[in-house]
Amino acid sequence: MLAVPLLSLLVLLPLGGGLLALACGTRLRAARGAALVVSLVELALVGGLLAWAESPATGQGAWLLSESRAWLPALGIGYRLGLDGVSLLLVLLTALLQVLCVLVSWRQIEDRPGLYYFLLLVMQTGVNGLFLAQDLFLFYLFWELQLIPMFFLVGIWGHERRIYASFKLVLFTLAGSLMLLLGILGLYAAHGAQTGEYTFSLAALASAPPAAGIQTWLMAAMLIGFAVKVPLVPLHTWLPEAHTQAPTAGSVLLAGVLLKTGAYAIFRVALPLLPSAASLAAPVLIGLALAGVFYAAWIARAQEDLKRLVAYSSITHLGLVVLGLAAWDLLSVSGAVLQMINHGLSTSALFIMAGLLQARLGTRRLADMGGLWGAMPRFSAFFLFFAMASLGLPGLNNFVGELLVLLGTYRVYPAAAVAGFVGLAVGVMYVLGMVQATIFGPAKPDASLPDLNAREALILGVLAAAVLFIGLHPGPVLELIEGPVRAMLHPGSQVALAVF
Questions:
Q1: Average pLDDT value for residue range 318-346
Q2: Which pTM was predicted?
Q3: Which 3-state string (H, E, C) describes the chain?
Q4: Is the pLDDT of residue 366 over 50?
Q5: I want to staple 146 with a disulfide (CB 3.0 to 4.6 A). Which of 56, 126, 213, 430 is the partner?
């Protein structure tokens, strides 16, 4: 198993599948069939890696697999990939959502299907590469690659304001990327001047951080780039537009995967490589995270568009993730990583259901909904389930992640943890308002509405099973997270997670 370049296969297999789908052109059945088969093979491959990682025979080190090859040695650039528990879970989440996105698009996308599925799969290549990259130059290449497919997915297959939303997405993320590039080049130059070794290797850069004064400026540049992608308030305004105008699969991948790349980069790049500046950045990150939790929750209450409401809820959830990362405690960081997975499951389900409603009703306006429980009982049961997961109901996945974030944050910043708890309480109002406006109350649609078919029930059933598993038995997931998180933190922050 280890003789095969599995990490390269994880990155390149979706690209190969995308080229196959592109070759199918306008042949709908061939294009979506190729995309589904490749996506299922990728999911099976990641599932096999997960089973191997959970095996007692697997070593207990932080890294499960790694690949390293010379690329541009004169510039210190190498082809370096690494897989640990955190990146494994995020790659698994990406693979699962990719399969579901192909199924969601099965009847929705008929125009230029070859190009559409090509873009979906190329995006998976970019995201997988980012989660596995252990070279900062390679990381940046994949960071940029993931943006291009989303621009076209929104701009071509989006809704009425798709051109505006796609260009706003690109302008914000490109501006953030330029700041990130400045930070990366500055770190490269500072490390070379200090050690005589010019390299982009994450391990080498972490072993010899630059002087504290330089770190502050480098951290500022990197965090601006990462904060745009999370997104943190006030750099968030592109997100509601992109979510509202994107096709359903685009919204799922944007919320479930692409937003995680910003938080993952803070965890993997910014805080470990610049430890002196991390302590200075923590209060700033906490303030921005809490501002996002309160602001987005309050704004969500006023939304009239269902997708826009769910988009603002993403800002709230990701704010809590950044809060846990900024506290830099074993419990809080483990909870933040788990919450990335949780958000990808529950919020993706809500976006899928918003797309299903729009296909049936021809609208996303909450004022045009209501009384769906009588017309669509299966749909309504799933909707209530995922809304309660998003709310953080005990026994469902979000509760575990939120609890760990708040407990860990309380150990370091008690006031911030209390404020975060209050922010979650504010979020209860928009979730309950959303449920009331959609499935309860008097029925407003005039025509009878078809309930979930077998394909749609399968999609939501898979997500519901994952939500329940993490909510009731999070131990196996936390075991994968704990080793990599411990490797990132100083020894004094280590607290046993065995209680969970």
A1: 95
A2: 0.93
A3: CCCCCHHHHHHHHHHHHHHHHHHCCCCHHHHHHHHHHHHHHHHHHHHHHHHHHHCCCCCCCCEEEEEEEEEEHHHCEEEEEEEEHHHHHHHHHHHHHHHHHHHHCCCCCCCCHHHHHHHHHHHHHHHHHHHHECEHHHHHHHHHHCHHHHHHHHHHHCCCCHHHHHHHHHHHHHHHHHHHHHHHHHHHHHHHHHHCCCCCEHHHHHHCCCCHHHHHHHHHHHHHHHHHHCCCCCCCCHHHHHHHHCCHHHHHHHHHHHHHHHHHHHHHHHHHHCHHHHHHHHHHHHHHHHHHHHHHHHHHCCCCEHHHHHHHHHHHHHHHHHHHHHHCCHHHHHHHHHHHHHHHHHHHHHHHHHHHHHHHHCCCEHHHCCCHHHHCHHHHHHHHHHHHHHHCCCCCHHHHHHHHHHHHHHHHCHHHHHHHHHHHHHHHHHHHHHHHHHCCCCCCCCCCCCCCCHHHHHHHHHHHHHHHHHHHCCHHHHHHHHHHHHHHCCHHHCCCCCCC
A4: yes
A5: 126
